[in-house]
Amino acid sequence: MIVVGGGPAGATAATAVALRGHRVLVLEQQTFPRYQIGESLLPSTVHGVCRILGVEDEVARAGFKVKRGGTFRWGRNRDPWQFSFALSPRLADPTSFAYQVERSRFDAILLDNARRVGVDVRENCRVKGVLADEERVRGVSWSGPGGELREARARYVVDASGNGSRIHTEVGGSRTYSDFFRNIAVFGYFAGGKRLPKPNDGNIFCAAFDEGWLWYIPLRDDLTSVGAVVSRENAAGIQQDPAAAWRRLIDSCPEVRDLLDGVPQATEVPYDQVRVRKDWSYWKSRLWRPGMVLAGDAACFVDPVLSSGVHLATYGALLAARSINSGLAGALDEGRLFDEFEARYRQEYRLFYEFLVSFYDMHQDERSYFWKARKVTNVGATELEAFVELVGGLASGDATFGGLGEAGARLTTASSELDTAVGRLPDSDGLRNPLFESATIRQVFQEGAVLQERGIFGGPLEEETPVRPGGLVASEDGLTWTDPDRP
Ligand code: FAD
């Protein structure tokens, strides 16, 4: 198998296939450690995927900041509230946390682990194109560190080359960009900053303000990642002078500005720059074709407010690896294996997309252009249509996903359910987390919880059932698919 890109998606796919004894080549255009945004993780990545890959202990030893959840200044209530990962915040179980990671270090740990299990990782090697015939993709063309052009062939190619993938169009054509999440982010780092009161001092803090929202991520005692997410219409102004725009946006949000009072901007490389990213929420009409699959940001991405990027990337890559492992073993029909990958990946993407639309809808600020445009009622028919077709379409065979009207109604219900659950927080006894009484929240974390159970107990606590008629279920080690009708 050939994997293009050595980020979290690439490292996950590569390791999970090598663990089953197959030969794997990773081609990565940069030299690690390299900078990447996306520092706030979810528990499913740490206790699920990392454990399945055999790298959880090493990640734990790296000393990353422990994240127990998110703190939000968001919604009706002017006071910040906690989104704790624990079902019972007072009796927090030992896996209801994640980490805030410097991605350069985290990604390098994952890629080194891939090397350790036998993956041939080549850095400074850029993939230029895909080798294919009428039947299937057969390999890639790439250039090595000296610029020499080479070709490599394999049964499967995984495109895990991220948001800037040059080969994703080989599967399912171009991306569909979300209008609802047409945002732009401008972000940089401070050499310190106040921390939230313990035990939430490692939480991500997200604060809504007039023009959008800000993230505040404590990476180390002397390093804080701060980013502003605003409407795409501001792109020209931001790109003209990102550092000035970043400072101005922070100054417009008192909750974040006060945490940074008197703290200097970071000067250490690579945290000395203010960076910009735009147009990041998109999906594709297909995620595989014979011989090639897309995983991680190469496949799809949706807004970062819930820190779902690395989860979706590693989860999608694990699903792809299961299909590839089963395909290489010749166990089941290839179409069935990769349809399973695609159906589950879409389902997970849909849950996060819907959750995030509802989460944006929950914030109320009638005076603000940004927030008025991000109401459920502003999810345009074109976007909903595309969404229903792509996410619930034939490919997934997901019978629970209805038409346009049903999708709109579900978004509205989810938003008011979220609002009610957050409203219950102040009366909580701390024993039960009222947020998990919301079906929307339970659903969005359900697959992550199954991943964690698989990592910790070697399988889910309840017998896994297929997610669709005729579907497959994961093997005990989580690395292949099995047919529940042919045990
Ligand atoms: P990447 O991490 O981008 O890795 C792709 C790799 O492929 C790179 O190393 C690249 O060098 C390599 N590559 C590219 N092209 C080629 C080529 N032609 N040949 C060889 N190699 C190639 N996620 C979270 O979980 N938490 C967050 O808090 C969060 N915040 C975010 C904030 C913003 C503003 C944005 C835009 C995203 C955020 N994300 C967050 C998302 C997160 O950054 C991504 O989802 C995640 O990095 C995806 O991992 P990946 O492995 O798919 O891609």
Automatic annotation (TrEMBL):
<dbReference type="InterPro" id="IPR036188">
    <property type="entry name" value="FAD/NAD-bd_sf"/>
</dbReference>
<comment type="similarity">
    <text>Belongs to the flavin-dependent halogenase family. Bacterial tryptophan halogenase subfamily.</text>
</comment>
<feature type="region of interest" description="Disordered">
    <location>
        <begin position="460"/>
        <end position="487"/>
    </location>
</feature>
<dbReference type="InterPro" id="IPR006905">
    <property type="entry name" value="Flavin_halogenase"/>
</dbReference>
<protein>
    <submittedName>
        <fullName>NAD(P)/FAD-dependent oxidoreductase</fullName>
    </submittedName>
</protein>
<dbReference type="InterPro" id="IPR050816">
    <property type="entry name" value="Flavin-dep_Halogenase_NPB"/>
</dbReference>
<dbReference type="Pfam" id="PF04820">
    <property type="entry name" value="Trp_halogenase"/>
</dbReference>
